[in-house]
Records
---
Amino acid sequence: MLVLTRKADESIMIGDNIEIVVVEIKGDAVKIGINAPRKISVHRKEVYQAIQAENIAATGAQPSDLEKISKFFPGPKKENKGDG
């Protein structure tokens, strides 16, 4: 782990396009700003962990589960190919 000391209004760069800025220091809390491309997701760690847990839980679907819900989603309608 890289540990850096920064003051308010100072920043660090991660790669060429992610900037972490110390916005404010108040007591034992540090407010930071993150400038990153929109394609990069930025979350608090607890939110990231919750997302990961949900993704793992979502992969727990069994084929039998899909069969049970398939009755609610009818397949494509077959065209009548009579002599019209």
---
Amino acid sequence: MRISYRPLWVLLAQREMTKKDLREISGISTASLAKLGKGENLTTDVLLKICEALNCNINEIIETVPFSDEDKKKSNIE
């Protein structure tokens, strides 16, 4: 399984917010925002900052999804 930030992007769209807006209100770094955009892992501290800024729960910004065949090839997962 891996983490997907798709629910976060949906939430931002519903609130008519940009990634820049998210960065400014949450105080996360541009590096963390870049990791979000690439679907990379982030610390729980960063995720909690986002939740606090958006007044939501963590399950509203992330979801778990199964590894795709491509993910498995990249990571040598069986």
---
Amino acid sequence: MVLTFDELRQIKHSLPTGSIAKIAQQLNIEEQTVRNFFGGDHYKDGKTADLHLQPGPGGGVVTIEDTRILELAREILASHS
């Protein structure tokens, strides 16, 4: 999946309070891993994440190989609309 870094950040900022913890719990990962994902950090649990940044407009282009965090975030947003 490809989107801009700004789009990724907008999704994070639109999530209701407690969503980071909920996503982490559902995926059985650390909350910091979820925060890092939305911050464009390249590391997940001390290893390189499935997230690649390329410079460009809109904060650059983000290519996401493992979309589970993003999918759960979008589900949360859809349920709060």
---
Amino acid sequence: MTFTTQLFQSENLVLEAYDPEKDAASEAAFSYDPNYAAVIDGEGVPHPLTVFEVKKKREEELKKGGEKDNFFLFALRRKSDGLFLGILTFPHVFWFNRYAFFKMTIGEAETRLAYFTEALQMGLRYGLEELGLYSMYTSTGEYEPEVKQGLEAAGFHEAVRQRENVYRDGKLWDRVFMEILQDEWKTRNAQVQS
């Protein structure tokens, strides 16, 4: 099977290089959502971040990624007006066995409902076609039902469940790592195109 789809554009969206100077302010505003804040800074307890904190974190990541060639970060924008919607990131690409963790996050809930599936397809095309990965995985849980359902609809399956690992809204939730294999992706796409 040969891949012939457009990688960086879809019907409504564009993937572009992340620009800390202009994108950090939008991400800082999105960080009031703990699920988005956890994507920016997964090391500690999710909390709102300042523009300076987001900018510094992203600049450090981009510098480190440029040195190691195993980190990718894209801004997800609406094609019609260039509005920053969120990010697609591959913070850990393991080239030796061709798998990667990725996170695709859209900041506003209404925008997420409108564009999640389309943005996810762009992320999958980039990872499985352009990077040639055999496997991609991400994390979510019942605290993000629309994300979990979107991943399942795209062909992801549950690989690992960490019981009561995420604290949101006064409750402990399971963190679920979900995975898709390149072969499964090819088979699904072949069926859709037939």
